[in-house]
Amino acid sequence: MSGYWFALTVAIVVAVLLMVLLRQRRLREKYAATWLVLAVFVVVIGAFPDLVAWLARVVGVETPSNLLFAGALVILLGVCVHLSVEATTLEEETRTLAEELALLRADVDKLSSAASVPAAPAPVPPAAPEA
Amino acid sequence: MNPSHDLRVLVVLPAWNEAAAIAAVLEEVATTLPSMDVLVVNDGSTDSTSAVARATGHATVLDLPLNLGVGGAMRAGYKYALRQRYDVAVQLDADGQHDPAAVPRLLAALNDGDADLVIGARFAGTGTYVVAGPRRWAMRLLSSSLSRIVGTRLTDTTSGFKASGRRAIELFARDYPAEYLGDTVEALVIAARAGLNVTQVGVEMRERAAGTPSHNPFKAAVYLGRAVLALAVALTRPISRRGA
User: Fold this and answer.
1) Which of A11, B176, B199, B220 could bridge across to B134 with cysteines, CB 3.0–4.6 Å?
2) Confidence (pTM)
3) Which CATH number does the domain housing residue B61 bear?
4) Helices (H), ranges, B151-216
5) Cβ A98–B80 below 8 Å, yes or no?
6) Looking at this predicted complex, what is its ipTM?
7) Chain B nearest-CA residue for A130
């Protein structure tokens, strides 16, 4: 019986943590949505374990917990792929910004030297990307 | 012989930590190709590449705030060429491997042959550049596949020595892969699929002016794998329509 309360508690803690992160703007809604839906799902299953047993019979899985594990793996894989896609998008956006920044800096250099402002010192070598 | 008579040509040198070589290369380009503008794309170097290049007074320097790789640096270069309305952009390595004296021949091929993209090829009968082992197999495989895709016989598809005409500049300013090998292999596929004419001209390849090349059997095998992956991805990629 203690296992039941333990699982339920973990699910609720995760859901609360997500809400806190969201409210602090440390987590964007588009990422949190997945986790929140999952957390609610886990809470429901935790509260009514018979649901899983029923679902396992319907799908044809012998041990209900295996259905849960398999499902969890697939969902986590999906989330990881989604995050990789997001990271790729971000890299492309960073790349475009870097290009625009470099082009702008070249324009500014040209303008300021054309305006015969006392020659600006050569720009400091670009700093290492921030972590 | 002056095929570049009324063309505005930009020589683009992507440079990453090339402080040791770049001054000599820029001097040579300025002497050999006095009529052309030169752009150094400093690809987030951690050494004094940018300052050294500026100090020569022969080049405009584009400082990328972070390291994007050759492909990333070149897209920035193509964007610059597009916005400054250049007719031709010539890519030249900043380490001195490419002989600037060959540039007029690339330009001639661009004009005469009705081509949009001309590759300076190392294995086209000129020069003595030799590659052995898996790296050679990879290059062979790439060459034969890409020749079929492009519709012209290409012998050196991983050459970074290229002259791009207006259509190629427009295309590459928008779509130029930053992936490994993307700047050579995939760029050719992108050009071919966009209907650009690609040809090659034999060039001589020289020793690097500074630094050491990174060749060993393991790396060569990895190179083969990545080359095949790059080709497969490039060929199956949906053709980009944005901003067309």
Assistant:
1) B220
2) 0.80
3) 3.90.550.10
4) 166-174, 187-193
5) no
6) 0.80
7) B66
